[in-house]
User: Which sequence fits this backbone?
Protein backbone atom coordinates (compact mmCIF):
# COMPACT_ATOMS: atom_id res chain seq x y z
CA UNK A 1 0.00 0.00 0.00
CA UNK A 2 1.55 3.28 -1.10
CA UNK A 3 2.16 5.75 1.76
CA UNK A 4 3.29 9.35 2.00
CA UNK A 5 6.47 9.35 4.06
CA UNK A 6 8.42 12.27 5.49
CA UNK A 7 12.14 11.79 5.99
CA UNK A 8 13.83 14.31 8.25
CA UNK A 9 17.34 15.11 7.01
CA UNK A 10 19.94 16.02 9.62
CA UNK A 11 22.35 18.86 9.05
CA UNK A 12 25.57 19.15 11.03
CA UNK A 13 28.14 21.87 10.38
CA UNK A 14 26.51 22.74 7.10
CA UNK A 15 26.49 19.17 5.77
CA UNK A 16 23.93 16.41 5.63
CA UNK A 17 24.76 13.52 7.94
CA UNK A 18 24.96 10.08 6.33
CA UNK A 19 22.06 8.85 8.43
CA UNK A 20 19.85 11.20 6.40
CA UNK A 21 20.53 9.18 3.25
CA UNK A 22 19.99 5.92 5.15
CA UNK A 23 16.67 7.35 6.40
CA UNK A 24 15.72 8.06 2.78
CA UNK A 25 16.34 4.39 1.90
CA UNK A 26 14.19 3.39 4.89
CA UNK A 27 11.54 5.89 3.82
CA UNK A 28 11.41 4.35 0.33
CA UNK A 29 10.70 0.91 1.82
CA UNK A 30 7.96 2.26 4.10
CA UNK A 31 6.46 4.36 1.28
CA UNK A 32 6.03 1.15 -0.72
CA UNK A 33 5.72 3.10 -3.97
CA UNK A 34 4.26 6.23 -2.37
CA UNK A 35 5.78 9.69 -2.14
CA UNK A 36 8.89 10.33 -0.03
CA UNK A 37 9.22 13.95 1.08
CA UNK A 38 12.49 15.17 2.57
CA UNK A 39 12.45 17.87 5.24
CA UNK A 40 15.46 20.04 5.97
CA UNK A 41 15.68 22.35 8.94
CA UNK A 42 18.45 24.90 9.47
CA UNK A 43 19.44 28.49 9.20
CA UNK A 44 20.22 28.36 5.50
CA UNK A 45 20.05 24.81 4.15
CA UNK A 46 18.31 25.10 0.77
CA UNK A 47 21.55 24.22 -1.05
CA UNK A 48 21.52 20.75 0.53
CA UNK A 49 18.06 19.81 -0.75
CA UNK A 50 19.24 18.34 -4.06
CA UNK A 51 21.47 15.86 -2.24
CA UNK A 52 18.38 14.33 -0.63
CA UNK A 53 16.76 14.12 -4.07
CA UNK A 54 19.87 12.44 -5.51
CA UNK A 55 19.55 9.79 -2.80
CA UNK A 56 15.89 9.09 -3.50
CA UNK A 57 13.37 11.58 -2.08
CA UNK A 58 10.75 12.86 -4.51
CA UNK A 59 10.73 16.44 -3.25
CA UNK A 60 12.05 18.51 -0.37
CA UNK A 61 10.48 21.01 2.02
CA UNK A 62 13.10 23.37 3.42
CA UNK A 63 12.62 25.41 6.58
CA UNK A 64 15.21 28.15 7.04
CA UNK A 65 15.13 30.04 10.33
CA UNK A 66 17.86 31.52 12.57
CA UNK A 67 16.47 29.55 15.54
CA UNK A 68 17.12 26.32 13.64
CA UNK A 69 20.85 26.98 13.25
CA UNK A 70 21.69 24.81 16.28
CA UNK A 71 19.52 21.99 17.49
CA UNK A 72 16.95 22.94 20.09
CA UNK A 73 14.06 20.70 21.00
CA UNK A 74 11.50 23.48 20.97
CA UNK A 75 12.45 25.01 17.65
CA UNK A 76 12.77 21.69 15.80
CA UNK A 77 9.58 20.31 17.29
CA UNK A 78 7.60 23.40 16.40
CA UNK A 79 8.99 23.56 12.87
CA UNK A 80 8.33 19.87 12.22
CA UNK A 81 4.78 20.07 13.56
CA UNK A 82 4.10 22.91 11.13
CA UNK A 83 5.50 20.83 8.26
CA UNK A 84 3.40 17.80 9.28
CA UNK A 85 0.32 20.01 9.49
CA UNK A 86 0.81 20.97 5.88
CA UNK A 87 1.95 17.61 4.53
CA UNK A 88 -0.19 15.12 6.49
CA UNK A 89 2.32 12.26 6.29
CA UNK A 90 1.38 8.67 7.02
CA UNK A 91 4.87 7.89 8.24
CA UNK A 92 7.87 9.86 9.50
CA UNK A 93 11.44 8.54 9.53
CA UNK A 94 14.32 10.08 11.47
CA UNK A 95 17.81 8.94 12.42
CA UNK A 96 18.21 7.30 15.84
CA UNK A 97 20.49 10.18 16.76
CA UNK A 98 20.48 12.77 19.50
CA UNK A 99 18.04 14.81 17.41
CA UNK A 100 15.82 11.87 16.44
CA UNK A 101 15.76 10.43 19.94
CA UNK A 102 14.85 13.81 21.35
CA UNK A 103 12.11 14.98 19.02
CA UNK A 104 10.50 11.75 17.77
CA UNK A 105 8.76 10.71 21.04
CA UNK A 106 7.53 14.28 21.57
CA UNK A 107 6.18 14.53 18.02
CA UNK A 108 4.64 11.06 18.14
CA UNK A 109 2.91 11.92 21.41
CA UNK A 110 1.59 15.21 20.01
CA UNK A 111 0.16 13.41 16.99
CA UNK A 112 -1.10 10.44 19.01
CA UNK A 113 1.11 8.29 16.80
CA UNK A 114 3.10 5.11 17.35
CA UNK A 115 6.91 5.18 17.46
CA UNK A 116 9.33 2.36 16.80
CA UNK A 117 12.86 3.35 17.72
CA UNK A 118 16.38 2.11 16.94
CA UNK A 119 15.31 0.22 13.82
CA UNK A 120 17.98 -1.77 11.98
CA UNK A 121 15.92 -3.17 9.10
CA UNK A 122 12.50 -2.84 7.50
CA UNK A 123 10.53 -5.18 5.29
CA UNK A 124 7.05 -5.04 3.82
CA UNK A 125 4.91 -8.00 4.92
CA UNK A 126 1.57 -8.09 3.20
CA UNK A 127 0.82 -4.41 2.94
CA UNK A 128 2.53 -3.30 6.11
CA UNK A 129 6.05 -2.26 7.04
CA UNK A 130 7.58 -4.48 9.72
CA UNK A 131 10.51 -3.04 11.66
CA UNK A 132 13.32 -5.03 13.26
CA UNK A 133 15.03 -3.63 16.35
CA UNK A 134 17.52 -5.06 18.83
CA UNK A 135 16.46 -5.77 22.41
CA UNK A 136 18.23 -6.98 25.56
CA UNK A 137 21.37 -5.03 24.67
CA UNK A 138 21.52 -6.55 21.21
CA UNK A 139 21.17 -10.18 22.33
CA UNK A 140 17.83 -10.61 20.59
CA UNK A 141 15.79 -8.91 17.92
CA UNK A 142 12.09 -8.13 17.78
CA UNK A 143 9.82 -7.32 14.89
CA UNK A 144 7.31 -4.54 15.38
CA UNK A 145 4.57 -2.89 13.39
CA UNK A 146 2.12 -0.11 14.06
CA UNK A 147 -1.46 -1.05 13.37
CA UNK A 148 -3.07 2.34 12.95
CA UNK A 149 -2.40 6.05 12.74
CA UNK A 150 0.75 7.89 11.76
CA UNK A 151 3.89 5.81 12.10
CA UNK A 152 7.14 7.21 13.46
CA UNK A 153 10.43 5.31 13.26
CA UNK A 154 14.01 6.16 14.09
CA UNK A 155 16.74 4.20 12.33
CA UNK A 156 20.09 3.26 13.81
CA UNK A 157 22.97 4.84 11.83
CA UNK A 158 25.17 2.54 9.73
CA UNK A 159 22.62 -0.29 9.47
CA UNK A 160 20.30 0.47 6.56
CA UNK A 161 22.27 1.01 3.37
CA UNK A 162 21.56 4.24 1.54
CA UNK A 163 20.54 4.00 -2.12
CA UNK A 164 23.06 4.71 -4.85
CA UNK A 165 23.45 8.43 -5.50
CA UNK A 166 21.88 9.49 -8.79
CA UNK A 167 22.76 13.06 -9.69
CA UNK A 168 20.34 13.01 -12.62
CA UNK A 169 17.32 12.73 -10.30
CA UNK A 170 15.22 15.90 -10.10
CA UNK A 171 12.53 16.99 -7.69
CA UNK A 172 10.73 20.03 -6.40
CA UNK A 173 12.32 22.06 -3.59
CA UNK A 174 9.95 24.33 -1.70
CA UNK A 175 10.56 26.56 1.30
CA UNK A 176 8.19 26.87 4.21
CA UNK A 177 8.12 29.91 6.50
CA UNK A 178 7.47 28.87 10.07
CA UNK A 179 6.55 30.78 13.17
CA UNK A 180 8.76 29.72 16.10
CA UNK A 181 7.74 30.99 19.52
CA UNK A 182 8.50 30.45 23.20
CA UNK A 183 11.85 28.80 22.72
CA UNK A 184 13.01 27.58 26.13
CA UNK A 185 16.25 25.81 25.70
CA UNK A 186 19.22 26.33 23.45
CA UNK A 187 21.34 23.22 23.44
CA UNK A 188 24.72 24.39 22.26
CA UNK A 189 26.06 21.06 21.11
CA UNK A 190 24.34 18.14 19.45
CA UNK A 191 25.57 15.62 21.97
CA UNK A 192 28.20 13.90 19.92
CA UNK A 193 31.59 15.42 20.44
CA UNK A 194 33.64 13.75 17.82
CA UNK A 195 37.24 13.98 16.88
CA UNK A 196 38.43 15.63 13.69
CA UNK A 197 34.83 16.27 12.73
CA UNK A 198 34.04 12.54 12.47
CA UNK A 199 30.76 11.64 14.13
CA UNK A 200 31.10 8.75 16.59
CA UNK A 201 27.92 6.90 15.63
CA UNK A 202 28.63 7.24 11.91
CA UNK A 203 32.38 6.63 12.03
CA UNK A 204 33.69 3.67 10.07
CA UNK A 205 36.60 3.40 12.51
CA UNK A 206 36.26 3.89 16.27
CA UNK A 207 39.18 3.98 18.69
CA UNK A 208 37.72 3.53 22.16
CA UNK A 209 39.72 3.96 25.34
CA UNK A 210 38.96 2.57 28.79
CA UNK A 211 40.14 2.97 32.33
CA UNK A 212 43.42 1.38 31.24
CA UNK A 213 44.24 4.62 29.38
CA UNK A 214 44.71 6.12 32.85
CA UNK A 215 44.34 9.87 32.12
CA UNK A 216 43.01 12.39 29.65
CA UNK A 217 46.57 12.75 28.29
CA UNK A 218 46.50 8.99 27.75
CA UNK A 219 43.76 9.57 25.17
CA UNK A 220 46.10 11.67 23.02
CA UNK A 221 47.69 8.67 21.20
CA UNK A 222 44.18 7.26 20.63
CA UNK A 223 43.22 10.58 19.07
CA UNK A 224 46.35 10.42 16.87
CA UNK A 225 45.42 6.90 15.76
CA UNK A 226 41.85 8.04 15.03
CA UNK A 227 43.12 10.99 12.99
CA UNK A 228 45.38 8.69 11.02
CA UNK A 229 42.53 6.31 10.21
CA UNK A 230 39.87 8.98 9.67
CA UNK A 231 38.01 7.64 12.69
CA UNK A 232 36.48 8.90 15.92
CA UNK A 233 37.48 8.42 19.53
CA UNK A 234 35.05 6.71 21.91
CA UNK A 235 35.30 5.56 25.50
CA UNK A 236 34.06 3.11 28.10
CA UNK A 237 32.04 4.37 31.01
CA UNK A 238 35.03 3.53 33.18
CA UNK A 239 37.05 6.17 31.34
CA UNK A 240 34.20 8.70 31.47
CA UNK A 241 33.57 8.09 35.19
CA UNK A 242 37.28 8.64 35.82
CA UNK A 243 36.97 11.99 34.02
CA UNK A 244 39.48 11.05 31.33
CA UNK A 245 36.99 12.20 28.68
CA UNK A 246 33.53 13.60 28.12
CA UNK A 247 30.42 11.43 28.62
CA UNK A 248 29.41 12.24 25.05
CA UNK A 249 32.08 9.69 24.02
CA UNK A 250 30.63 6.86 26.15
CA UNK A 251 29.79 3.70 24.25
CA UNK A 252 27.55 1.02 25.70
CA UNK A 253 24.22 0.23 27.23
CA UNK A 254 23.85 3.71 28.72
CA UNK A 255 25.96 5.42 26.07
CA UNK A 256 26.08 5.38 22.30
CA UNK A 257 25.63 2.31 20.12
CA UNK A 258 28.21 2.09 17.36
CA UNK A 259 28.61 -0.35 14.48
CA UNK A 260 31.79 0.71 12.68
CA UNK A 261 33.76 -1.43 10.25
CA UNK A 262 36.70 -1.38 12.66
CA UNK A 263 36.55 -1.00 16.45
CA UNK A 264 39.62 -0.72 18.65
CA UNK A 265 39.00 -1.44 22.35
CA UNK A 266 42.07 -0.04 24.10
CA UNK A 267 42.44 -0.72 27.83
CA UNK A 268 38.80 -1.76 28.05
CA UNK A 269 37.93 -4.91 30.02
CA UNK A 270 34.79 -5.77 28.02
CA UNK A 271 31.98 -5.50 30.57
CA UNK A 272 28.61 -6.65 29.26
CA UNK A 273 27.30 -3.06 29.39
CA UNK A 274 30.16 -1.92 27.14
CA UNK A 275 29.65 -4.82 24.71
CA UNK A 276 26.01 -3.73 24.31
CA UNK A 277 27.23 -0.66 22.49
CA UNK A 278 29.90 -2.11 20.21
CA UNK A 279 29.66 -5.90 19.80
CA UNK A 280 27.99 -5.56 16.40
CA UNK A 281 31.08 -3.80 15.01
CA UNK A 282 32.30 -5.61 11.91
CA UNK A 283 35.89 -6.14 13.07
CA UNK A 284 36.96 -5.75 16.68
CA UNK A 285 40.58 -5.31 17.75
CA UNK A 286 41.29 -5.47 21.50
CA UNK A 287 44.46 -4.20 23.15
CA UNK A 288 44.71 -5.22 26.78
CA UNK A 289 47.52 -6.31 29.07
CA UNK A 290 45.31 -8.92 30.74
CA UNK A 291 45.02 -12.03 28.53
CA UNK A 292 41.92 -13.06 30.50
CA UNK A 293 40.05 -9.79 29.81
CA UNK A 294 36.52 -10.62 28.56
CA UNK A 295 36.93 -8.23 25.62
CA UNK A 296 39.05 -10.92 23.93
CA UNK A 297 35.98 -13.17 23.75
CA UNK A 298 34.33 -10.81 21.25
CA UNK A 299 37.52 -9.58 19.55
CA UNK A 300 38.47 -10.72 16.05
CA UNK A 301 42.06 -9.69 16.74
CA UNK A 302 43.60 -9.50 20.18
CA UNK A 303 46.86 -7.85 21.19
CA UNK A 304 48.00 -8.74 24.71
CA UNK A 305 50.29 -5.94 25.78
CA UNK A 306 50.73 -2.53 27.32
CA UNK A 307 48.64 -0.06 25.35
CA UNK A 308 51.23 2.66 25.94
CA UNK A 309 53.66 0.58 23.88
CA UNK A 310 51.24 -0.97 21.40
CA UNK A 311 49.36 2.17 20.27
CA UNK A 312 52.51 4.21 19.40
CA UNK A 313 53.85 1.17 17.52
CA UNK A 314 50.61 0.90 15.56
CA UNK A 315 50.78 4.61 14.71
CA UNK A 316 54.38 4.23 13.59
CA UNK A 317 53.52 1.22 11.39
CA UNK A 318 50.50 2.93 9.86
CA UNK A 319 52.48 6.08 9.08
CA UNK A 320 54.99 3.91 7.26
CA UNK A 321 52.33 2.36 5.02
P1 LIG B 1 37.96 -1.66 33.65
O1 LIG B 1 36.92 -2.70 33.79
O2 LIG B 1 38.61 -1.17 34.88
O3 LIG B 1 39.03 -2.23 32.63
C1 LIG B 1 40.25 -1.60 32.36
C2 LIG B 1 41.03 -2.56 31.50
O4 LIG B 1 42.22 -1.92 31.08
C3 LIG B 1 41.41 -3.85 32.18
O5 LIG B 1 40.95 -4.96 31.42
C4 LIG B 1 42.94 -3.82 32.24
O6 LIG B 1 43.54 -5.09 32.05
C5 LIG B 1 43.25 -2.90 31.07
N1 LIG B 1 44.51 -2.18 31.21
C6 LIG B 1 44.96 -1.47 32.28
N2 LIG B 1 46.14 -0.91 32.01
C7 LIG B 1 46.47 -1.29 30.76
C8 LIG B 1 47.59 -1.04 29.91
N3 LIG B 1 48.60 -0.26 30.31
N4 LIG B 1 47.60 -1.58 28.67
C9 LIG B 1 46.57 -2.37 28.26
N5 LIG B 1 45.49 -2.63 29.02
C10 LIG B 1 45.43 -2.10 30.23
N6 LIG B 1 30.22 0.67 30.74
C11 LIG B 1 30.41 1.13 29.49
O7 LIG B 1 31.53 1.08 28.97
N7 LIG B 1 29.37 1.66 28.80
C12 LIG B 1 28.12 1.74 29.30
O8 LIG B 1 27.22 2.25 28.64
C13 LIG B 1 27.89 1.25 30.62
N8 LIG B 1 26.66 1.27 31.15
C14 LIG B 1 26.47 0.74 32.40
C15 LIG B 1 25.17 0.66 32.93
C16 LIG B 1 24.98 0.10 34.16
C17 LIG B 1 23.58 0.05 34.71
C18 LIG B 1 26.08 -0.39 34.90
C19 LIG B 1 25.87 -1.01 36.24
C20 LIG B 1 27.34 -0.33 34.40
C21 LIG B 1 27.57 0.25 33.14
N9 LIG B 1 28.83 0.31 32.60
C22 LIG B 1 29.00 0.74 31.32
C23 LIG B 1 30.05 0.03 33.39
C24 LIG B 1 30.64 -1.34 33.12
O9 LIG B 1 30.02 -2.30 33.97
C25 LIG B 1 32.16 -1.33 33.43
O10 LIG B 1 32.34 -0.90 34.77
C26 LIG B 1 32.96 -0.42 32.52
O11 LIG B 1 32.67 -0.71 31.17
C27 LIG B 1 34.45 -0.67 32.76
O12 LIG B 1 35.19 0.22 31.99
P2 LIG B 1 36.66 -0.19 31.53
O13 LIG B 1 36.60 -1.45 30.75
O14 LIG B 1 37.25 1.00 30.91
O15 LIG B 1 37.39 -0.37 32.93
Assistant:
Amino acid sequence: MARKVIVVGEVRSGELRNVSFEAVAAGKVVADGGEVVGVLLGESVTDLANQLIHYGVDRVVVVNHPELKSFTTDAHQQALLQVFDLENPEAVILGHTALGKDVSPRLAMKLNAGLISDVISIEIQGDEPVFTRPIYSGKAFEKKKINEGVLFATIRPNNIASLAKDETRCGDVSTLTVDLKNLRTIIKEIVQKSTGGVDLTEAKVVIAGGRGVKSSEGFKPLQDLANLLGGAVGASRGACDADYCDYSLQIGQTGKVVTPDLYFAVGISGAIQHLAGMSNSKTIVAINKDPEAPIFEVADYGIVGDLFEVVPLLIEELKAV
About this structure: The first strand starts at residue 5 and ends at 8.
